Amino acid sequence: MKKIITIGFLLIGFFTSSAQVTFRPGIRAGLSLSTLGFNGDFKPDFYVGALGEIKLTKRYSLQPEINYSRQGANNLEQFSIDYDNGGYIERVGYYDVNIDYLSVSMINKFSFKSGVQIQFGPTVDFIVNSNLRYSDSDVDFGFVTGVGYKLPSGLIIEARFKANVLDNYGSYNDGYYYEENNYSPSLAFQIGVSYTFGKK
C-alpha cells in the first residue's frame, strides 16, 4: 500500500510541474448502502476520505483519493455441513458482516459547463478490520463509477457505485467441518458531498 501511495504522490508532482495544471486538495464524506454479491440485505453506514484534484484541462481532472469506508451486508446467507460419526448435519445460517476498507482510488472526472460531472476509475481496497470468519485475501480490486453536481458554492453532490471483483468471504473445509458461501464480491452505493480547497 505504501508503494501505491508513493506512486500517487509522484504522479501529483509530475502533473503539477506544468504551469497550466492546478492541484487542489479536498475532502469527501457521505452515506453508503453495501452488500456482498446481493446475497444479503443492504447494510447502511458511512465513508470519509481525502482527495487531490489534478486539473489537466478545462473539463478533465485526475483525482487520486484515499477513503475509509464501512461496508458489509446484513443477513448474509451461509451454508455449512458438520460431519459427525459417519453422518452429517446441514445448516443454513444468516449473519451480519462488517468490513472496514481503506481504499486507494484514481478517479477520472469530466466536468461540464452545467455543473454536471462524470466520475469513474479503478480502486484498490485494503481490509483493515472485519468480522469475516474466513477470508481469501485482505486486498481487493474494483471499479468506481458515478455522477456529481457542482453547486455555485463549490460543494459537489456525488452519487457513486463501487463494485469489487474478489470474493472476500471465502469457504472453509478441514475434513470435519465444511462451510460454503456464494460468490460475494463487495458492492456499495454511495451518496455524499465533496469539497476542494483553493482558488476555484
Short description:
This protein has 200 residues and is mostly beta strands. The chain has a single domain, classed as Porin (Beta Barrel), CATH 2.40.160. It contains one helix and ten strands.
**What is the typical, i.e. mean, pLDDT?**
84
What Rg is obtained from the alpha carbons, in whole angstroms?
20 Å
Main sheet record: 8 strands, antiparallel, barrel
Residue windows where pLDDT falls under 50 for at least 5 positions: 174-178
| Overall structural domain count | 1
Q: Which series of helices and strands comes N to C?
A: HEEEEEEEEEE
Beta-strand content bin: over 45%
Shape: elongated
- CATH architectural designation: Beta Barrel
Termini separation: 31 Å
Q: Structural class of the helix and strand makeup? A: mainly beta
- Work out the helix count: 1
Helix content: under 10%
Question: Might you state the CATH topology name?
Answer: Porin
Taking strands numbered 1, 2, ... along the chain, how are they ordered across the largest sheet? Answer: 1-2-3-4-5-6-7-10
| Oligomeric state of the chains present here | single chain
Number of strands: 10
What's the CATH C level?
A: Mainly Beta
